[in-house]
Design a protein that fits this description.
The chain is of the alpha/beta class. It has helices spanning about 40-60, 115-125, 135-145, 220-230, 235-240, 245, 255-270, 280-285; strands at about 5-10, 10-15, 30, 35-40, 60-65, 75, 100-105, 105-110, 125-135, 160, 180-185, 200. β9, α3 (about 135-145) and β10 (about 160) form a beta-alpha-beta unit. α2 (about 115-125) packs parallel to α7 (about 255-270). The radius of gyration is 22 Å and the shape is globular. Mean pLDDT is about 85; it is low at about 235-240. The structure holds zinc ion. Zinc ion binds near residues 3, 5 and 16.
């Protein structure tokens, strides 16, 4: 019988021992599970079905794929801080929601979204959690050490841009779970291939730090210069104030993550009550 070379590690088929070149790029890389691991689409389909059976019968859980930046935290580069934000650098040691990191040789602050610890603890009781981030991997690594230091929540189910063939779009092909039991929580719909957005519970983006109004591009700078010259106003003055500048924050009890958790609890209950057999129907039920 001819081997289908379903599981290939470092160029060698794990079933028959043959060298596999994969010149037509048919195999799907799963670097986040093991270095050099590639699986055939057929084997990925088999694994997805197998995981669903296990999920439904044994664990009574569903699966939740979580974005990180913008959903669970915000990042601000210190060199871009406004005068009203600079005091935050001195508060890092006295606060448990603010962390200083060096990412791509830039100094920055990470601000955890209010309610994030409670959200992960409670969501983990009903869902198997997966992290999926296209942010710089040093952000993601740091965040996961903060949020999940003992790998209680995510285990090895962490997909980063560096692990994927496609570094600017997300795909559920890399999540080894049947799509009927899979929910995504992300603030960016446009990060996902259109086929997968019907799994999405979209959350408001968490923006703690002020965003520079000029993107740094020549065009943006020129555009702002023209507006300042012609109309006499400064773009920075028009930009809405951020939480960081106002000294406020999103509500923990009634903010994005608390509301998402309420929705997810309800969805889980309705799924196991037998109302629907596919989470997509629950996500889009009126
Ligand atoms: Zn083989």
């Amino acid at each position: 019988m001819v081997c289908g070379h379903s599981i290939v590690l470092q160029g060698t088929c794990c079933q028959c021992g043959s060298a596999v070149m994969d010149e037509s790029n048919k195999l799907i890389p799963f670097e986040f599970l093991a270095k050099g691991l590639k699986l055939s689409p057929q084997y990925v389909g088999f694994m997805k079905r197998h995981t669903m059976i296990n999920t439904l019968k044994e664990k009574k859980k569903l699966h939740l794929v979580l974005n990180l930046h913008g959903t669970l935290y915000d990042y601000g580069r210190i060199s871009a801080f406004s005068d009203r934000e600079k005091h935050l650098v001195g508060e890092v040691d006295s606060r448990d929601d603010l962390w200083r990191i060096t990412a791509r040789s830039h100094q920055g602050l990470i601000k955890l979204r209010p309610f994030v610890a409670e959200f992960l603890r409670e969501a983990n009781k009903l869902f198997t959690l997966h992290a999926y981030s296209l942010s710089p991997s040093d952000h993601s690594d740091y965040m996961l050490k903060l949020l999940d230091p003992h790998q209680t929540y995510f285990g090895r189910r962490v997909i980063c841009g560096r692990d994927t063939r496609d570094t600017w779009m997300k795909t559920l092909d890399l999540v080894l779970v049947d799509e009927r039991v899979l929910v995504i929580l992300d603030d960016q719909c446009s990060s996902w291939w259109a086929d997968h957005t019907n799994h999405l519970l979209q959350i408001m983006t968490y923006r703690y730090f002020k965003r520079p109004t000029t993107s740094g591009s020549l065009f943006a700078n020129l555009f702002n210069h023209v507006k300042r010259y012609l109309f006499g106003y400064d773009c920075d003055q028009l930009a809405p104030k951020s939480y960081s500048e106002e000294g406020t924050d999103e509500s923990a009890e009634d903010g994005g993550l608390a509301n998402a958790l309420r929705f997810l609890r309800n969805l889980h209950q309705r799924f196991y009550d037998g109302e629907y057999k596919d989470v997509r129907m629950l996500l889009h039920a009126s």
